UniProtKB/TrEMBL annotation:
One of its GO terms (biological process) is fatty acid biosynthetic process. This is PKS/mFAS DH domain-containing protein. It comes from the Eukaryota. Residues 180-310 are annotated as: C-terminal hotdog fold. The active site is at H81 (proton acceptor), D229 (proton donor). It comes from Polypedilum vanderplanki (Sleeping chironomid midge). Residues 46-170 are annotated as: N-terminal hotdog fold. Residues 46-310 form the PKS/mFAS DH domain. One of its GO terms (molecular function) is fatty acid synthase activity.
Amino acid sequence: MEFFIESLGKLFQQGVDMDISKLYPPIQFPVSRNTPMISPNIKWNHTENHFVPHFDSYNTFERRNIIINISDRKFEFIQGHLIDGRCLFPATGWIFLIWETFSMMIGMNFEKVKVVFEDIQFLRATALNKNQDVLITISIHRGTGRFEVIEGVSAVVHGYIRQEEEIEMSEITVLSDENTLTLGADDFYKEMRLHGFCHLGEFQGIKEIRHDGLKGKIKWAFNWITFIDSMTHFEELETNARTLALPTNIRKVVIDPILHYQIMERKQKELEGVEDDKKEILYDVKISPYLKIIQAGGVEIHDKINRVVNRRRPKEPTLESQKFIPFFANEKFSLKDAAKIITQTALETIFQPRFCCIEIDSDSEPLSEFLSKAVQAIPMVQSDVTFLTSKENIELENVSISSDSELSSFNGVDLIIKSNCVKDNEFLDSIKSVLNSNGYILSREQSTVSEIDEKLQLVAKVSLENGEVLHMLQLKDNIKPFEPQNIIEITSNLLLNHTINVYKNQSWGGYRFLDFKPDTKPISTNQHCFANCLIKGDLSSLAWMRGPIDVHKNEIIRIHFRH
């Protein structure tokens, strides 16, 4: 072989143009079909384990891409950050992600890195929807510490960040005042809803607050985003104007996680011996209105500037009529009116700002879209309607479409809609952990069901124009009975767990708001008619009206004409 390579090299040096394949033709080995192959007998030897070094890639972080989806478990809690009816990514969320990215860049755990943010400018809001991916890019310059967050191709926020070895917190003293009042969480967030902040879940972190907003307490739920976001709302009570204001600039933010956890450990020791369901770690919040500093735990916010934004225009006014509807009405309704009756009946019992409903696909026309519109017509209530189906290419307005196998993944559902489930014991057992306390089941039956399972309580019944009968049910094990202060026994048949009961026309029911239906009966002919505008100056309101003149009576008619 060496002789062949050496000879071949000399031929190339001499520039000989020749066909090597003629001098050395390829060797062909005869292979039969029965010849055994070697490759199937070659296998990996897995009898020994070897350690492989892992190189931390965080040290090279200067740019980080993040996909935000509020349907993912990591970002699911952000669904509670509702502003003016929309889910927006919180401004404090950008602060946390930049802090986390900066810590990755220097190769440290963010909970051990003391940082100072300066000159933070929020350029635009980021709206989030369920099952929608939002690509975020965070860039940090190593030399200057300047950061920039980009959503798609648009900048969202920029500023500066740096690490500090020692941080000295500001000394803030809030003077006590006997004339001050302390608001609880319920009262404060009622006021916040009037401002346009409809926060839910972990974003309702304020436990109590003084009426002037200079002092209060915040719950620590091991979530930096919700904790700092709750701090930013202490300024909402300073002004009496109920306007919606969002942060645009923050001069400085100081975060000392080591000090923060030291305070947490002291508070945990103070709670030793307290029952677990009553343990709440509360941080004191102090405000300096002159220095414009908000302080809580190991966090300080300096000089936050807000900008009043225009709230979304209210919906066009709708004409509705209030009508008494018995719980077991014989009248037949359209799908739209039936959805309103079911929704208003349920919301009289379920007191919460978000109404969660799931409908399981059937051969009947979906009720989800009508139900979502019925919830949206109710002030201060958000609709969360999901349609479970295995079919494709289904689109419903303001309704989420999911696989029909995902029912077990839900919890805290207020209403479940399914066909022919009154006698489906397997289904009824499977939804015990899915339904909310006092939650409802809406069974779509082809006719009235006379026999109801012992597990169920029939609370209402609505007949449809297409012949279906909607049975509104509750699981008896899930019902939490109300305990009113004053009880007046009228009859032994008042045990339907309704909050509001009206007895009228020898039936128990309630008043419901339905679409206003004008009188379309034909008007009898009249000898005297005239045209006039129903709205002065609006020619589109021109209509015929019945006149008072009776031609059969001998009356003097005077005709006036102006030129």
